[in-house]
Batch of 2 targets.
Target 1
Amino acid sequence: MTTRSLTPVKSGNFETFSWFFMRVSALLLIFLVVFHLLYMHIVIRVENITFRTIVDRWSGPLGWFWSLYDITMLFLALLHGANGARWVIDDYIRPPAWNTTLKVVLYLFVFIMLIIGIQTILRFQAGVM
Ligand code: HEM
């Protein structure tokens, strides 16, 4: 059983910040993800989405807005998920060597996903395609 939902269990500024970050990012993600779902799945409709639809959205007149929107969602979801996974690793993987190895793999994975995601979104800005 964890007491994390009630109070930060580890001490230190970083752990306090990480506890707040989980709450704030969760709240922001609710709005970002629900709007994303309604817009992409109901307004545009899944059957109408093609590679062109997405590229036009990023490179059109409101391209800056959609790029910022998607990058924010990418950052928050990845960092929220990674921080949560770090908690799970610390809770369940006690041997220091395994604990560190898993966290290094996790951080590398998140870093690579962030780079791939950001460079994909920014590649299709106005004038590039
Ligand atoms: C609307 C979207 C989301 C909401 C509202 C949300 C909410 C939360 C909250 C409030 C916590 C803290 C729980 C605690 O302190 O015990 C949490 C933990 C966590 N979240 Fe999210 N989350 C969302 C999206 C995601 C996504 C996209 C991922 C994965 C990529 C993720 C993975 C995790 C993990 C692994 C934990 C840690 C669980 C644990 O400590 O046992 N969440 N989430």
Target 2
Amino acid sequence: MQFVYNVILVLHFVGLAALLGGFAAQMKSPDKHVTKVMYHGTLLQLITGALMVVFAEAGWVDETINHSVVGTKLLILIVILVIAVWSRKKPAPQVKAWAAVGILTLINICIAVFAGAAS
Ligand code: HEM
């Protein structure tokens, strides 16, 4: 089960790359907006993060979840998701939505790394 958990963690990083990569790639674009790749990265973060919590809570892997860290990351991710869905049908540029998603993603990375989601 540890192998499957690690695969899910890799996918968690893929989602992170999609979010942050989608943000960074538009740094110089005049049409900054929340792209489909960023939106799908958000969904991947949510699914893989939730799955890792399930694996740890079920005792399938030897990981202890830090609930306050995961809860905070989940709240921030929900905000990202709301912004992504809200700005999806709107015409570019959507600079505020693009910037908010990038900054919130960076905050979530800092929370994950400095506070630790699991140990
Ligand atoms: C934009 C949103 C998110 C970002 C940028 C993010 C980023 C990260 C990063 C960088 C790590 C690796 C840190 C480490 O292992 O020391 C990590 C691990 C983890 N994340 Fe997230 N995360 C996000 C959302 C979520 C959500 C919503 C959940 C739960 C519902 C979640 C659950 C976890 C768990 C359980 C781990 C621990 C993996 C392990 O160390 O075994 N994450 N996340």
